[in-house]
Amino acid sequence: MNEINIIQLLFYILPALVTGGIAFYFFNLHTKNEEGRRRFLLHKEMDKNTIPIRLQAYERMALFLERINPSKLLIRIAPESADKEVYESQLIAIIESEFDHNLAQQIYISDECWNVIKASKNATIQLIRKAAMNTENAQKLREEVLNNLLEKQPPSSAALGYIKKEIRELFS
To answer: Whole-model pTM above 0.85?
Structure first.
């Protein structure tokens, strides 16, 4: 009789366990699905708010790169005297000032893009310093830098291309 009672008990418990297992499985699946949906909606809302800020950061960095483009920089900033060291220092100070003004933008752009922009800034400064070593006055410094740019692209061109690539990736 004991064996019969145990078998009958199993017949009652087995369907309850199967039903409970299936209910647990579907409840767990539903919970994960809801969590994923909430995460997606939160991410979508965040993107809606951050994309304009990120685009503004890319715009500001593109403007920075245009402003430090040596051909535009030399046209905008004329030498005040014939002293090349003063003019060289003035140009480098303007580049550094522009860069410092845009430091906060690194929060909104990728680290790789920020490093490309920094490399462009440093290459532009090196271009000016290298040209200053080969000249005797401020006017010759301007001519030397512009002549160097006739042979190759300014450093800011590569960084601008990288910014454009990142913006395309942002929308794809």
So the answer is: no
